[in-house]
Amino acid sequence: MTLLKPSDRRERLERIVTAWWRWYAALGVLGCVAYFVVPSITWAQSVFVLVGASAVAATVIGTRMHRPRNRAAWLTIALGTALWVVGDIAYEWIYITQGSVPYPSLADAVYLVAYPIYGLGLFLLVRHKWRSSERGHVANSAIVMVAFGLLTWVFAVQPTLGDGGSSWIAGLVDVAYPAMDIFLLGLLAHFVGSRQWRALSYRLLTAAVLLLVVTDTVSNFSLVAESASERWLFDVGWTTSYVLIGVAALHPSMRRITSPRIEPDAHLMASFTTPTVVVLTAATLTAPIVMFIEVIRDEPIAQWGWAVLLCAGALVILVILRITDLLRLLHTQTVQLRAVADTDHLTGLANVRALEHRIWRTSGATTLLTVDIDRFKEINDTFGRGLGDQVLVAVADRLRGVVDDSILLARLAGDEFALFGATESMDPTSLAREIQLQFATPLEVGNMTLLIEASVGMASGSPTTEGDDDTTPDRLVQRADLAVQAAKATQSRVASYDRSMDRDKSEQLIMLGELTTALESDQLKLHYQPQVELSSMTVVAVEALLRWHHPNGTVLSPSEFLPTAERTGLIRPLTSYVLTHALAQRSVWAHDGLDLQMAVNISTRNLFDDTLIDQVRCALATFDCPAGQLTLEVTETSAMTDPAGATEVLSILREMGVQVAIDDYGTGYSSLAYIERLPVQELKIDRTFVGGMAHNPAHAAIVRSTVELARTLGLSVIAEGVEDEVTLTALRELRCGRAQGYHLGRPTSPDRLPALVAELNARLKTATGERIP
Fold first, then answer.
1. How many CB atoms lie within 10 A of CB 102?
2. In this structure, what DSSP letter does residue 166 have?
3. How many CA atoms lie within 13 A of 551 on its CB side?
């Protein structure tokens, strides 16, 4: 005997439970067929009662099995159905014992009690908690009930009341049955207007109610007395209604049709669907149609006139209520659409459209601050847009902390935000300072801690009489954008617009075009500066330094054109150019017997570029360069912009064997605790500290502590900016690893480097005489 795992047993049980509704539907169909083929009326009525009882049992079982939230609704439906079955039993018992059933009888009393209970259960399905917006559905139901009530009264009830042969109790029952059907039909209109219509169980239950109402209506309109032999014509509809109730309760979708969570406006929209409008239109036309039919039939006005006028008045009032709801809905949606059009969906802030409207509406002097998140693209590229969106939401929350009601906070696009207000109500400088303070604390996003930097640009405008209106949205935003671009190049990360920026912007665009041409026309050249190992006093490496030999005769350093490249896609081909040319030149030197390590600088954009790893791997393979002979230098600030992302990229490089150095160490975060987490092998102490060692005790202490702590962490140290013999001697005494600077050799062209290395090695060997142990 094979034992099933608990999970397998649960899965098998779920399959069996799920199939129950199909089995019950099949048995229900067989019951309906059996009703026709049994040999006698007594047997047929027994089948009828049995099917009804099975529907009650199926409803109770389905409620216990599926455990819907609002079980009371289904149990109330089961109770109403059970009372109908009790009425069926009472009807058959009276017929069997007395040979005929009087009208009205005990069975009629039980039937009439069952209707409101059954209807209450249906109402509980579509109503979870009362909302004022549900008045629309109630009005729909009322319109249908009034229209159907008019038809029933004029064509079914009134003719039977006028024959004079019935008792007042029978007349009351004649009115009660149509009234109950009108009540159920009103609930059915409520059903069709609900969003829960998508559930199969809901549709089955709706079909059951509709079939019940149709069967009752046919019975009420029938002019033939209901004898036992003729009742089966109506029992067919009631039997099928029983089956549909049971199937609806057993179907798994019944769990989803209780406790609806629908917004108020969704209720209003649902009450104005196309089917609902068609039904309401037909119901509204009922009164004139009835009047037209009765006039053609030449019926006395006294018999139907008052009913038509009463119903017509009620329909007019209800339709007015529905039109009022529709107008209210249109107004609400107009307001909501206007709010949506002026709102950024991600952050909930105002968007560009709202900002433009606010600028146009504000008179007098105005001020706009643009906040740009630095290196946000690297976050998106490294962690994906999901986390990038979380960062934007967190940034928006930080910015909310610095504004009040007089300042509009908006998201322009991507990682750009704006703060706008009248100049008299805001202090731009203080506000910019507050913004910078907000980003001094790292952001907790997901399970990551990110230190975000922001640049702030400020621009002010005021109406002029010369036609040059500084307060137009385009002009103000453009000037704030120029200011924020300028802020990225300053230490404070804050800049205010001045007219020189317009010229600078045009110069940047010109430079961008010229830089593209420079890449294609070999205007870019690499120079190489030696790095000396202080223990042996020999040149062991060189650093590749990019220079742009501009057609106008000047030579531009990277600081003059790399910021422009970093803001565009040009940084990638520039990096590829430096890598390939530097390793190609190293290969030439190695072939001639000069084997040097090559150091190449990469920017922040490169560090988070998903093509960097492939670029490095391809360059190493192309020029047959051992990975350990390549050092990639990254700035301390760029590495700590996103420590987790930097660690991932640098770890891959380290696994490849590539050396990684932190450049300009001491000018950024200045924390060996952070550096210790990064997979780096070298630190390059910034020239600011190295150059001041001889005359600044504080700088000398910084260099000394850095060398000692780096040695403790197993990192090698390179000192850049060695300008004299005194500094070189001090570094040797500190047992610093390597040094570079003008005193040891200036950057030179590749063809002159071998001679420079030979000369430098000879000079250092002569000057030192012996190596420091």
1. 11
2. S
3. 8
pLDDT tens by residue, 511-550: 667 777 877 778 889 999 999 999 899 999 999 999 988 8
* Pairing of the two strands 682-685 and 659-665: parallel
Query: What is the 8-class DSSP label of residue 2?
Result: P
Number of neighbouring beta carbons within 10 Å of residue 571: 20
Residue 152 near residue 286 (C-beta atoms within 8 A): no
Residues 658 and 607: beta-carbon distance below 8 Å: no
| Vertex 601: Cα angle to 595 and 604 (nearest 5) | 155
Cβ contacts of 757 within 8 Å, gap of 6 or more: 530, 539, 594, 596
- What is each CA distance from 607 to 378, 575, 651, 749, in whole angstroms? 8, 11, 12, 27
For helices 274-284 and 135-152, the axis angle rounded to 10 degrees is 40
- What phi, psi does 543 have (nearest 5°)? -110, 130
- pLDDT value at position 258? 52
Residue 301 makes CB contacts below 8 A (sequence gap 6+) with 294
Q: Which residue has the higher pLDDT, 226 or 428?
A: 428
Which residue has better confidence, 383 or 628?
Answer: 628
Distance CA 494, CA 478 (A): 16
What distance in Å separates the CA atoms of residue 649 and residue 638, rounded to the nearest whole number?
12
Contact partners, residue 383, CB within 8 Å, separation at least 6 = 448, 645
Whole-number Cα distances in Å, 364 to 359, 386, 423, 439, 464 = 10, 41, 8, 31, 10
Considering only 197-201, 275-279, 576-580, 764-768, which range has the smallest mean pLDDT? 275-279
DSSP 350: B
| E-state strands within 622-696 | 630-635, 659-665, 682-685
What separation, in Å, do the N-terminal and C-terminal C-alpha atoms of the chain show? 81
Amino acid residing at 672: L
The Cα-based distances of 285 to 147, 148, 221, 326, 540 in angstroms read 8, 11, 21, 19, 99
CA 119/CA 114 separation, integer angstroms: 8
CA–CA separation, 608 and 641 (whole Å): 10
Greatest alpha-carbon pair distance for the chain in Å reads 140
State the angle between helix axes of 385-400 and 428-438 in degrees (0 to 180), rounded to the nearest 10: 130
DSSP-based helix, strand, coil % in the chain, nearest 5: 65, 10, 25
Residues 157-193: tens digit of each pLDDT: 666 655 555 565 766 676 677 777 777 777 776 666 5
Nearest to 421 by CA among 437, 433, 412, 410: 410
What is the mean predicted confidence (pLDDT) over 442-469? Answer: 74
Amino acid at 651: S
Peptide bond into 264 cis (omega under 30): no
Residues 40, 33: Cα–Cα separation, whole Å: 14
Q: How far apart are CA 267 and CA 55, in angstroms?
A: 31
Question: How much is the pLDDT for 266?
Answer: 46
E strands in 468-521: 494-496
Indicate the pTM of the whole model.
Answer: 0.43
CB 146 within 8 A of CB 311: yes
Tokens 């059915």 correspond to what residue? 188
pLDDT digits (tens, 9 = 90+) for 117-154: 988 888 887 664 444 445 666 666 677 767 766 666 66
Residues 6+ apart with CB under 8 A from 589: 595, 596, 750, 753, 754
Instruction: Give the span between the Cα atoms of 599 and 529, in whole angstroms.
Output: 10
Task: Give the integer Cα–Cα distance in Å for 716 and 82.
Answer: 88
CB neighbour burial string for 212-244, b if at least 16 within 10 angstroms, e if fewer? bbebbbebbeeeeeeebeebeeebebbbbbbbb
